[in-house]
Amino acid sequence: MGRLEGKVAIVTGGAGGIGSATGRLFCEEGARIVLVDRDADQMHSVLAEMRSAVPNPEVLGIVADVGEESFAKRIVDDTLGAFGAIDVLVNNAGIRSYEPLADAKAETWHAILSVNLLSYAYLTREALPALRRSGRGSIVNVSSTHAFNPRAGMGQYDVTKAGIVSMTRTLAFEEAPHVRVNAICPGATFTTFHKRRAEALSRSQEEVDREAATTCLLRRWADPREIAYPILWLASDEASYVTASALMADGGRLVI
Questions:
Q1: Any domain includes 207
Q2: Range(s) of the domain holding residue 170
Q3: Is 3 a member of any domain?
Q4: What are 94-112's pLDDT values in tens digits?
Q5: Are 13 and 37 in contact (CB under 8 A)?
Q6: Which residues, other chains included, contact 159 with Cβ-Cβ below 8 Å and sequence gap of 6+?
Q7: Catalytic machinery residues
Q8: What is the pTM of this model?
Q9: Which end of the chain is more exposed for a tag (fewer CB within 10 A), N or C?
């Protein structure tokens, strides 16, 4: 028996680094999975890889921009149509902005709030009736260590991640004892996004690795699967007495 045997889970940002690692791990642990992402090509690649790596995975891919409110109901309806239930929701979709707050444009604020914060609210709202019916529903919201440790130059991103933690705690209060709601706060996690950005800036892997070595006690980047495991735990019945928490998975960043 897998740790999520018989459960149905939705993972947004499912074609990205943390999202795809989470989806694959959930499949390995017996869950039926719905991956949601707006990148159709990357979604196709992730689904093909998952189907070749995991025996008989039950997985559905939905191409949608979760920042648009209208997609939230469609995602829930398609999940219920395919699998008949929702037990776990992992809100993971996110985009970045590299503008100082003094220069932040209205369109940038709108875009990042729509994806990083409002998509969590929209999809949660639509999924809650099914999560309540589950009797063991769990929501895991992917925030960031920078919700508590903000930086110069990425204020918009960090503001949304702080908002996720606040939303998580309020929702846990409102939905107890029917649905558990927790956040996970990853630190530096080396995903395809970071690889492509380093290449675009002509930065070597050695330079990128040196940067991570100065940011946390473990002195390295996390692999996305290292973030997927604590998400798995929060989603599973093993964490049945855990709600309203913000679990740090940051290699010890905050103690430096």
A1: yes
A2: 8-255
A3: no
A4: 999 999 999 999 999 999 9
A5: yes
A6: 150
A7: 157
A8: 0.94
A9: N
